[in-house]
Design goal:
The protein has 15 helices and eight strands. The protein is an alpha/beta fold and 341 residues long. It has two domains: 234 residues, TIM Barrel; 87 residues, Bacteriocin As-48, Chain A. Helix 1 links the parallel strand 1 and strand 2.
Length: 341
């Protein structure tokens, strides 16, 4: 039986969205956004804040096992932090060698490390030695920095360093997230290493999943933005829902959006709920045209309570094309209140 994993998505799928997406079912595991390691030992509160699943036996509220991902470039500090993170009951520790973000790459982390297979080996070896044998150490990589010339060398270095499995995002750093994903390279890597390889990249539909498995030769697949665009994608792949989305599913999607917003509103010091909801809707637009209309309806709103009222109204009316347009006058009222204060 093939396995499905929810990918780490820095800046997109924090633990709140991770909670919502795994609550729909279908995933065998998920990986956190990366916890950045520099030159210090991170306190426990960092993990409790960014990966609160550690407070619940390493599971999301829906019961999906969670793996903590670490990002850094120094083998010793990564090893020390991995040893500490291992005491918090995650279902594994993953090392990030795929992040293409410039702010990360400027400091020699993420995908930039793919230019140095020997350093990859040192990092994985150090972390593996520091972590108890019962906790898997895995790695996520891309095909290279600007080309694929070191892809096999990097994968081999990671496997020989002690990585229990590899997730391969089938693009280089310079490719970013531009299609296509080069799944044929995953097949070459899979043939070169003696550890399980999990395919990742450009899986948006059930048909994409089928092609990815066929081309890569991998049974297991990790899904990222495809799951954000269609929260039921894992269930469709499992055959538990229709393979194609339908408008009848939209009321259920709306309830998930309401759930997401409510969870965002309970976060300590969260002031960007409106942006998070709009970002998710921008992905949902790929799957449901109703998401585009809802996005337009809340586009100018910045108060999460106002956005919540609009979405709740949509839920109550089960979506009429014009029913989600706000009828409140938040901007003028809010400005008047600020002046009186």
């Amino acid at each position: 039986m093939s396995r499905l994993f929810l990918a780490p998505m820095e800046g997109l799928a924090d633990y709140v969205l991770r909670d919502v997406l795994t609550s729909t079912g279908g995933f065998d595991g998920c990986v956190s956004e990366f916890v950045r390691v520099t030159g210090s030992l991170l306190p426990e509160r960092v993990y409790e804040r960014d990966t609160p699943e550690v407070l619940h036996g390493g599971h999301t509220p829906g019961g999906t096992p969670m793996v903590i991902q670490l990002l850094g470039s120094d083998p010793e500090w990564l090893a020390l932090n991995a040893a500490h993170a291992a005491t918090l009951s995650p279902h594994g520790l993953d090392l990030n060698f795929g992040c293409p973000a410039k702010v990360v790459n400027r400091h020699g982390g993420g995908a930039m490390l793919l230019a140095d297979p020997e350093q990859l080996n040192r990092i994985v070896s150090s972390v593996r030695a520091a972590v108890p044998p019962g906790i898997p150490v895995t790695a996520k990589m891309r095909l290279g920095v600007s080309d694929t010339s070191l892809a096999i060398d990097c994968a081999t270095a990671l496997a020989e360093g002690g990585a229990a499995s590899l997730v391969v995002h089938a693009r280089t750093r310079d490719h970013g997230y531009r299609p296509p994903a080069h799944w044929e390279w995953i097949a070459r890597i899979d043939a070169a290493v003696d550890v399980p390889v999990i395919a990742n990249g450009e899986v948006w539909t059930v048909a994409d999943w089928e092609r990815c498995r066929a081309v890569s030769g991998c049974a297991d697949v990790m899904i990222g933005r495809g799951a954000v665009s269609d929260p039921f994608l894992a269930l469709r792949i499992r055959g538990q829902m229709d393979s194609s989305p339908s408008s009848e599913e939209w009321p259920t999607v709306l309830r998930h959006i309401v759930d997401y917003l409510k969870k965002l509103q309970t976060r300590v010091a969260s002031r960007h709920e409106h942006g998070r909801v709009k970002m998710w809707l921008s992905y949902l637009k790929r799957t449901w045209p109703q998401a585009a209309e809802l996005h337009a309806a809340i586009r100018r709103l910045h108060d999460s309570r106002e956005i919540s009222a609009v979405i709740e109204h949509c839920v109550a009316t089960w979506w009429q094309p014009s029913s989600c347009m706000p009828t409140i006058r938040p901007r003028a009222d809010a400005h008047a209140q600020q002046c009186h204060d």
